[in-house]
Amino acid sequence: HTWWNEGNGAYLDRIEFIDYGTDPATIMSAVEAEEVDMTYESVGDFIDILDGLDMIRSEASTAATIITRPNQLAEVDGKKPYADVRVRRALAMAVDNAVVLELGYAGRGVIAENHHVSTIHPEYAELPPQKVDPAGAMALMKEAGMADFDHEIISLDDGFEKDTTDAVAAQLRDAGFKVTRKILPGSTFWNDWAKYPFSSTTWNQRPFGVQVLALAYKTGVPWNETGFANEEFDSTLVEASSIADADQRRVLMKRLEEIMQNEGVIIQPYWRSVYNHSRPGLVNADMHAQFEIRYQNIGWDA
Questions:
Q1: Separation between Cα atoms, residue 302 and residue 293, nearest integer Å
Q2: Nearest to residue 82, comparing CAs of 96, 94, 97, 92?
Q3: What is the per-residue pLDDT for 12?
């Protein structure tokens, strides 16, 4: 594509997208070989490595996240282990989200609260801090008769998704739970991402908290990977989604967040800061919180 960039007066003759797959090391090699001028996203240890190659780092604080979730409808050996709220709550109680942020994402983000509503969402409601209680988690798991159950946790094989899920698994093991890790390539993982009994998934930012709740947690919606179905949650969400004023919507959002925590729907360790890198001289190539690339503003410094 060719157009005149009003921002700096330089022609952009063409924008070419190259898909190097999910391995960040391949993208790193492309930068070193000067095959690309800008990364779509820079992740993990490669952020610092790209800094060292004199690329320009851009950062955006976001409501993008990763969740590790049990699927309440999934069967394992003829049973539905995560249909029991005690099992789900025990899993969440055993994990310190601050530790997962540090180990899984090098501290590049903000601690989350296991309800998938961010402090940057206008209707976010503050709740009391959740307690990390591994001993209490094991007691709850024993009460559910699941102390000897082997939790297989599935994740992608690349970058922070693998590291974050490893950190969650390590803390569950520290609490005394049996855990097996299964790591899949993207070509396999995404075939059945919504059906796994226990897995980690990334979610990008939506502008409002009610949007992602409606996409991911309302009964029966296609992207409901948790199998969560709660009549009070659904009706409250419908009402909240009809309120334009964020302050008024926050009253109902507080209840939605409480239900998510009380039901142990997800382990959500952190909200991600996201990054990209570009070559010196490429202007207006800043990272966007929702991964938008505003082509009309990007160009080479004249």
A1: 20
A2: 92
A3: 58
List the structure tokens of 161. Answer: 């998704």
Closest of 46, 48, 51, 55 to residue 23, by C-alpha: 46
User: Residue 101 has which token pair?
Assistant: 């942020």
Q: Give me Rg for the CA atoms of the chain.
A: 21
DSSP code, position 39: -
Tens of pLDDT, residues 181-212: 999 998 899 999 999 999 999 999 999 999 99
- State the helix-helix crossing angle for 246-262 and 231-241, rounded to 10 degrees: 160
Closest-CA residue to 295 (of 41, 11, 45) = 11
Query: How far is 44 from 158, CA to CA, in rounded Å?
Result: 10
Picking from 277, 268, 216, 274, the residue whose alpha carbon sits closest to that of residue 62 is 274
Beta strands 11-12 and 109-111 are: unpaired
